[in-house]
Amino acid sequence: MLIQSLAILAIASLLVVYQILKDRTQFPKFVALETSQERRDYFRTSVLDSAFRYGVLGVVGLYVLGELSGLIAFPAIFEPGRALTFAWLTPNPDQLYLFGYGLAGIVFILFTIITILPFYMKAEDLPQDGVMAMLARNWKEAKWSTLLSINAGVSEEIFFRLMLPLAAFHLTGNILISFGIAALYFGIAHAYQGIGGIIVTGVLGLLFTLIYVLTAQLWLVILIHILVDLRGLILLPWALGILNTGETEAPSD
Question: Given 120, 142, 162, 199, which residue has the most CB atoms within 10 angstroms?
Answer without folding.
Answer: 162
